[in-house]
Amino acid sequence: MGQRRPPRAPLIRDHRVIQALDGPGTLPVGVGGDTPQITTRQLRRGDRVLIYTDGLVEEHKTGGEQFGEERLIAAIERVGPASGGVQEMVRDLSHALMRERGGTTADDASPFVVEWRGGTADHLAMPEQ
């Protein structure tokens, strides 16, 4: 198994992709390899981050080009304004991507959207030992 970079996670602000979050890649936890490195970004209330499997952008019809990050960004910005919460956005994005692929997919294409609502997450931190 080769070491691959994870897909770049789009940072979505006001229904527009403002940048792709990038960081150092490592093998999945439990498989070995380098110690995972933490990358931080300052988020604003309402920012969303799309985390997805590589099949979302690598999918292609036989002999055709890959779906790609540019088409993914266009789909995000098309469905974003019409979507309310993150669940609706994921559903709308999934449906839009399936339509663009002719209703089929041959690869794992899983989107997951996280929305920052502000405040702290101290209650989620593990106590130091």
Brief synopsis:
This protein has 129 residues and is an alpha+beta fold.
The main β sheet shows up as: 4 strands, antiparallel
User: Order of strands side by side in the largest beta sheet?
Assistant: 2-1-3-4
Tell me the Rg in angstroms.
16 Å
Shape: globular
- Bin the strand percentage: 15-25%
Structure class: alpha+beta
Unreliable runs: none
The total count of strands amounts to 4
Protein model, in words:
With about 130 residues, this protein is an alpha+beta fold. It has a domain of about 45 residues. The protein is about 25% helix and about 15% strand. It has three helices and four strands, in the order βββαααβ. β1 and β2 form a beta hairpin. The chain is globular, with a radius of gyration of 16 Å. The N and C termini lie far apart (about 35 Å).
Features:
129 residues, alpha+beta, four-stranded antiparallel sheet, 3 helices, 24% helix, 16% strand
